[in-house]
Amino acid sequence: GGGSAACPAGDLGAALGRANLLVGGAMEDADFAAAPFGLRYRYLAGAVPTGGPCASCATGCTVNGADCSNAAGCEWWGCWQWDQEPPGRYVANNITADEAAGAVPMFTYYVWLAASGYNEGMAEVTALSDGAVAQAYLADWRFFQQTIAASTSGPVIVHLEPDFWGYGEQAAADPEAIPAAVAAAGAAECAAEPDTMGGFARCMVDVARAEAPNALLGFHASAWGAGYDAYLDNGPGFDRTAHADTTAAWLAALGAGAADLLVVEQSDRDAGFNGRWWDATNATLPDFTMALSWTSRVAGDLGLPLLWWQVPYGHVGLEDICDRYQDNRVDYFFDHPEEYAAAGALGIAFGAGAGCMTTPATDDGWFVMRASTYLAGPGTPLCGP
Fold first, then answer.
1. Dihedrals φ, ψ of 314, to 5°?
2. For residue 89, what are the CA distances in angstroms to 48, 75, 84, 99, 225?
3. Cys staple from 135: which of 178, 185, 243, 356, with CB 3.0 to 4.6 Å?
């Protein structure tokens, strides 16, 4: 994990064969095909099967008592395809398609919430001590890594559990103080890891390194994990640098420094929906300079490149109704990509964080137009000029 102190994003970009900022997101096939995007991400979310990963989706596979055949539907990502195909083809097929389009495949693995009982927040942290839950989860995580390795020898970005680590940071100042059933999960690679949240996180890395050396792992840094939300105007007494250092130290104790990159976000909703605007003139907090400085500090402390994720798609020409909410983050990026590069970004992945948010299919073509224009140009060198 990590890169050179001078330019971790450049080091990882070189390993990917990319010299410029990666631009992409989560979008429909038609929009993805409209420009030469550098990455595409998809969520893997939902519960895990009873008794571990299934051998067949058509028969004998159940999740929370429900059958996983196509007739019934399935919560498990492993059966998000025709049930006559073997489990995992959803991931494998999309890796193949993304690579054929010249993009780096990316998956956000967001499974712990459902696997632990669908109770968001501190209940997720408490559930770490349940050996049966930990065992089922890590078995699914292993199957995911095996699916990646069987699908390609090329790089696949894997984003680990957004929000979960932030809840852990809120629960305790040290991830080693949070109990977790690592030994009970029975992963041979993790025999030396302690029964703590840190041990659990490092176990995920250990399993991934053993099963899929081509997976590029990225823990998620939550701007609100260290108490205050660093993306808000918290008043003149707020020390944003110290907040970033605290966040980075917690992630380092977790084991995030052994990953390949750090994933950060801006907002999971369009600003026209939740009112969380950033000032594009950078004159009044909250603004973009504030967010870029916080994320750059966290990533710099860890020696990792940044990947911006799930950045809202809205633009200011919309009318603030379902599927068409305003935001200024698309335009800010395409107007100032050099600021992201200078702050240590490997790339940016746009995406709608909930239903009713703006997407490229509902924005009158604005995102595709801006992205196509940008990607037809020379691009933005990683780490800046």
1. -60, 160
2. 16, 15, 10, 15, 35
3. 185
Alpha-carbon distances, residue 176 vs 68, 169, 350, 377 (angstroms): 37, 11, 33, 47
Helix (H, G, I), strand (E, B) or coil at 162: coil
Residue type, 381: P
Residue with tokens 């053993």: 210
* DSSP assignment letter at 109: E
Q: Assess contact for 92 and 147: CB atoms under 8 A.
A: yes
Which residues, listed in sequence order, are joined to residue 127 by a DSSP beta bridge? none
